[in-house]
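Bumping with the actual sequence this time:
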Amino acid sequence: MLRLPLTTAHLRPGFPDALEYRGEAYLGLNRIADVKQVYLDLFASYRVLAAQLMQAIKTWIDLRRSFIHTNRGRRKLAVIRSNSSEVP
């Protein structure tokens, strides 16, 4: 489970490597607002780590875009769109 990286970041919240790792963990959990905040925190003081997180974000976006182009991805997207159109 993802307890180790989150616990490490909790013990030393200012530890930049832990922040970057936590950002990638949030990305895997689809917690985009948290990823954005971690990126902004890193960008302020640790540009190299912010660049690493940005590369992970770009890879995540590319993977999500490529998934949409698969048959399974198209079906899942169709289900999401049909369900969202039913919400008032």
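The tokens above came from a reply further down the thread. The chain has one domain: 3-86.
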